[in-house]
């Protein structure tokens, strides 16, 4: 079993869709073993998306991620990292497969509802950025 890090982004909280997204996550067999609703600071968002800091959309991305509350989560399951990426769908919702979270709920590539770690190394780092061990119960 494996753990991945997830964020329900501000477009999800704004539209009151956190339960609907969680239902898709749980239906896919992923267990939500840690969950917290927070307002990200600019510094936190900049650190989290550091790898994208040279991209033209970086400013917009940080602005969006701090525009409202987010739900940070630890998801657990068999091949959780790859499985969640599959359930999320393509970064651009217009290219996302039918039944994925982004195809179902997202309105643009910027406001694409969810984040999921893209590797085991990043999952570990990202979980550690937002969770203490005592706040995860598998
Ligand atoms: P994350 O799980 O959020 O990391 O998404 P991803 O791995 O599918 O995409 P990637 O890591 O390449 O990009 C990170 C995030 O930057 C995306 O989820 C989008 O929110 C945002 N992003 C990517 N491309 C664009 C773009 O062209 N414009 C804007 N505004 N945002 C973008
Ligand atoms: Mg990414």
UniProtKB/TrEMBL annotation:
Keywords from the UniProt entry: ATP-binding, Cytoplasm, Kinase, Magnesium, Metal-binding, Nucleotide metabolism, Nucleotide-binding, Phosphoprotein, Transferase
SUPFAM superfamilies named in the record: Nucleoside diphosphate kinase, NDK
One Gene Ontology term from the biological process aspect of the record: GTP biosynthetic process
Pfam family, any one: NDK
Cofactor: Mg(2+)
EC numbers on record: 2.7.4.6
Compartment(s) where it occurs, according to its Swiss-Prot or TrEMBL record: Cytoplasm
GO cellular component, one term: cytoplasm
Principal location class: cytoplasm
Molecular function terms from GO: ATP binding; metal ion binding; nucleoside diphosphate kinase activity
Reactions listed under catalytic activity: a ribonucleoside 5'-diphosphate + ATP = a ribonucleoside 5'-triphosphate + ADP; a 2'-deoxyribonucleoside 5'-diphosphate + ATP = a 2'-deoxyribonucleoside 5'-triphosphate + ADP
Chain positions recorded as ATP binding sites: 9, 57, 85, 91, 102, 112
InterPro entries, sorted: NDK-like_dom (IPR034907), NDK-like_dom_sf (IPR036850), Nucleoside_diP_kinase (IPR001564)
Domain Nucleoside diphosphate kinase-like: 1-138
Active site per the UniProt annotation: 115
CDD domains in the record: NDPk_I
PANTHER family: NUCLEOSIDE DIPHOSPHATE KINASE, NUCLEOSIDE DIPHOSPHATE KINASE DDB_G0292928-RELATED
Subunit structure: Homotetramer.
NCBIfam families: PRK00668.1
UniProt record similarity statement: Belongs to the NDK family.
Function: Major role in the synthesis of nucleoside triphosphates other than ATP. The ATP gamma phosphate is transferred to the NDP beta phosphate via a ping-pong mechanism, using a phosphorylated active-site intermediate.
Name of this protein: Nucleoside diphosphate kinase
Organism taxonomic ancestry: Bacteria, Pseudomonadati, Pseudomonadota, Alphaproteobacteria, Hyphomicrobiales
């Amino acid at each position: 079993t494996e753990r991945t890090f997830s964020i329900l982004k501000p477009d999800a909280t704004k539209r009151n869709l956190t339960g609907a997204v969680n239902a898709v996550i749980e239906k896919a067999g992923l267990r939500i073993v840690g969950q917290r609703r927070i307002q990200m600071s600019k510094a936190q968002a900049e650190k989290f998306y550091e790898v994208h800091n040279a991209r033209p959309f970086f400013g917009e991305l940080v602005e969006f991620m701090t525009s409202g509350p987010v739900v940070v989560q630890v998801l657990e399951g068999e091949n959780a990292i790859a499985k969640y990426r599959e359930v999320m769908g393509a970064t651009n919702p217009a290219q996302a497969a039918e039944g994925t979270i982004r195809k179902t709920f997202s309105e643009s590539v910027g406001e694409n509802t969810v984040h999921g770690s893209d590797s085991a190394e990043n999952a570990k780092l990202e979980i550690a950025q937002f969770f203490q061990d005592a706040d995860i119960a598998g």
